[in-house]
Structures are given as C-alpha cells and as structure tokens.
Design brief:
alpha+beta; 2 domains; 38% helix; 22% strand
C-alpha cells in the first residue's frame, strides 16, 4: 500500500516515470502473462451446472468444453469441477441477462 501511495505522490509532482518504475519493479512483466482474445461462452446446463466453451486463437488446443459445478450437486462434497464462488459469479451474470 505504501508503494502505491509513493507512486501517486511522485506522479503528482511530475518527477516520476511510471512506465520505467513499473518495469523495474516487475509489475509490467506480469502484463505479458495475460492471454487475450479468447472466445468464451457459458450457459446453464442444470440447476447446479454451468457449461463453458472456450475457443483459443493462440498456440495450443483450439477449443474445449468444460463445466463448473456447485457442491450442491454432490450433496456438499467438493469435487474436481466444483467451484462455488465462480459458479455463483457466472450464475449471477446469466440471471442478470435472463439466461438462467
């Protein structure tokens, strides 16, 4: 938190090159780990399952289908595909858009 406050103060004073400092601190290096341009679709399969299709225009597998399940589907037991927080967030997007 102090680091961000120092960056802001120096930026305001005009004596600070933000790009160079971010590169030196390693923050800019993390930007290159983002893979943009994927095509994502997701939909309700049943009350406890959301399916996702992902198309990859980059190197690697072209496309895949996967699912995210809520633990309610398995009587509260954690399984490989159960991700309650992600399920909740995706479900809320579907609900807000009338797709649930």
């Amino acid at each position: 938190m102090n680091y961000l406050m120092e960056m802001s103060m120096e930026s305001i004073c005009g004596t600070y090159d933000l790009q160079d400092n971010l590169k030196e601190s390693g923050i800019m290096a993390n930007e290159t780990k983002t893979l943009a341009g994927l095509h994502l679709n997701f939909w309700k399969q049943d009350e406890h399952t959301i399916h996702m299709s992902i198309k990859n225009p980059h190197a690697g597998k072209d496309a895949w289908l996967t699912s995210i399940e809520h633990t309610d589907k398995h009587e509260g037991t954690q399984m490989a595909r159960t991700h309650n927080n992600l399920f909740r967030d995706l479900k809320s997007i579907l609900e807000e858009n009338g797709k649930w």
